[in-house]
């Protein structure tokens, strides 16, 4: 039998080199960690003369630098800005839907399901999409384009909705599924393009959600007041089509792939050896991610509603949400950069502590717009950029195994999706909608919500202490 060489990528966590392991087609077993297999239908292009290549190979774009790496980072940031920035804007729509026909007869809890459904689906979908892309890498770009088309159509069709369940199906379920599909490959290819600066690059990319969350509420708030929700959704669909259509041209894998000439079985959906995913680090991060998101999303969805109790005008609610999101842009970049140089549990602890203090001490006593604005900025800065620690935490768990790193990020996204759904539901049940009294602490029926948010942030900082212990123990063993 003729021997065909397959190449599979293995990325060093802290170094700058991308190593290649070369195996023959006759090899039919995986390595213990499942990272190398002779069962892949696809193979990477053979750039090296001896069948090997690394980050210094002139035939490949450089890692961590160069025009193409920058193009990937900026293009992915645009996707993040529009997709997740749009998700961060739903608080403005919720405030509008609850106060304007044809949806104002529904409860705020029912209307909040639209936003939480979209968020939850996108986060949960990331884990599935990561596994799908690793198994069928040649379908990644077609899926991205198809997902974009469906997302655009879902917004256009939802502009004709007359019932809340129409919005839940179109703006929630269908948009969530399609947007998650065309965004997920970014998380897989990030590990190919960036190694030493992975945290910083991830901070820039993820910071797009805060940038979009700053700009889009201002634009959407203006449009909602001027042309109503129907034309606002149609205009947003056009923005999504143009900006993301251009951005998709720059979001590509660093290492091209092509079909094998032999019909070989594909890589399994999950690695054979899942020992790295049974790490205490992963369990601890999943717990931290759960409690952090349970406290984060109620603020992003309900802070415009809280602001509307202080002012009947639309602009203050819009400014509050914009401040909340733009503050996260700074924290994404700073958190990501710090994680490249210092232990990431420190960042987790600071994020939780700052969020808890702002919830208990600023939001609890917020009885004027100025204090609400301050809370939005402070809480957004400490809590909004939390996902910037994902690349560092995933690398700590997976080491040099990119497929484990990507799956770990998918797990982080999954628990954040759980928080995106459950957190607002809990907050809605704690909010006393019939209490409009201004009190010394926790006014306008939000006292229990504020205590819940602060408690979840406190649990985040406590979890960081355990995370630091497990991370230090792992470093000592290695």
UniProtKB/TrEMBL annotation:
One of the record's GO molecular function terms: transmembrane transporter activity
**Does the record's keyword annotation contain Transmembrane?**
yes
Q: Which UniProt keywords apply?
A: Membrane, Transmembrane, Transmembrane helix
Where is this gene product found? Membrane
**What's a single GO CC term here?**
membrane
Task: Name the membrane topology term.
Answer: Multi-pass membrane protein
Q: What is its main location?
A: membrane
InterPro entries from the entry? MFS, MFS_dom, MFS_trans_sf, Proton-linked_MCT
The keyword Transmembrane is assigned to this record: yes
- Residue ranges of every copy of the Major facilitator superfamily (MFS) profile domain listed in the record: 73-475
Origin: domain of life: Eukaryota
Residue intervals passing through the bilayer = 69-87, 107-131, 143-161, 167-188, 200-219, 231-251, 281-303, 315-335, 347-366, 372-392, 404-431, 451-472
Task: Give the matching PROSITE patterns.
Answer: MFS (PS50850)
Report the family membership. Belongs to the major facilitator superfamily. Monocarboxylate porter (TC 2.A.1.13) family.
* Protein name, per record: Major facilitator superfamily (MFS) profile domain-containing protein
Q: Specify the species.
A: Agrocybe pediades
């Amino acid at each position: 039998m003729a021997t065909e060489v397959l190449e599979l990528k293995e990325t060093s966590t802290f170094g700058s080199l991308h190593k290649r392991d070369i195996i023959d087609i006759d090899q039919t077993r995986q390595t213990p960690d499942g990272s190398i297999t002779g069962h892949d239908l696809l193979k990477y292009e053979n750039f090296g003369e001896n069948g090997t290549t690394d980050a210094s190979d002139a035939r490949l774009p450089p890692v961590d630098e160069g025009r193409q790496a920058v193009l990937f980072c900026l293009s992915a940031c645009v996707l993040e800005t529009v997709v997740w920035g749009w998700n961060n804007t739903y608080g403005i729509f919720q405030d509008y839907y609850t106060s304007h026909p044809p949806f104002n007869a529904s409860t705020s809890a029912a209307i909040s399901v639209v936003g939480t459904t979209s968020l939850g689906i996108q986060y949960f979908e990331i884990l599935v999409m990561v596994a799908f892309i690793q198994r069928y890498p040649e379908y990644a770009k077609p899926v991205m384009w198809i997902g974009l088309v469906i997302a655009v159509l879902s917004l256009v069709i939802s502009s004709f909705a007359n019932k809340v369940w129409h919005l839940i199906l179109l703006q929630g379920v269908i948009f969530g599924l399609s947007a998650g599909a065309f965004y997920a490959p970014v998380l897989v290819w990030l590990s190919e393009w960036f190694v030493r600066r992975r945290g910083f690059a991830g901070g820039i990319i993820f910071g797009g959600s805060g940038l979009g969350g700053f700009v889009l509420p201002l634009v959407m708030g203006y449009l909602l007041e001027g042309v109503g929700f129907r034309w606002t959704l149609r205009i947003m669909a056009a923005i999504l089509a143009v900006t993301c259509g251009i951005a998709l041209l720059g979001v590509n894998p660093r290492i091209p792939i092509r079909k094998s000439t032999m019909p070989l079985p594909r890589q399994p959906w999950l690695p054979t050896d899942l020992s790295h995913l049974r790490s205490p680090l992963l369990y601890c991060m999943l717990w931290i991610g759960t409690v952090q998101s349970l406290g984060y999303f109620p603020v992003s969805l309900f802070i415009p509603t809280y602001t509307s109790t202080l002012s009947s005008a639309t602009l203050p609610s819009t400014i509050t949400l914009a401040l909340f999101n733009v503050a996260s842009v700074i924290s994404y970049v700073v958190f990501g950069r710090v994680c490249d140089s210092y232990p990431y549990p420190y960042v987790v602890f600071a994020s939780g502590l700052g969020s808890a203090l702002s919830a208990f001490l600023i939001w609890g006593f917020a009885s004027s717009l100025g204090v609400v604005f301050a809370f939005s900025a402070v809480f957004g800065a400490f809590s909004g950029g939390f996902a910037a620690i994902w690349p560092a935490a995933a690398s700590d768990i997976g080491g040099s195994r990119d497929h484990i790193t990507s799956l770990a990020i998918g797990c982080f996204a999954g628990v954040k999706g759980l928080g995106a759904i459950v957190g607002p539901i809990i907050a809605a049940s704690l909010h006393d909608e019939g209490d409009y009294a201004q009190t010394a602490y926790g006014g306008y029926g939000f006292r229990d919500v504020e205590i819940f948010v602060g408690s979840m942030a406190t649990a985040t900082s406590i979890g960081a202490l355990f995370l630091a212990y497990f991370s230090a123990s792992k470093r000592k063993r290695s």
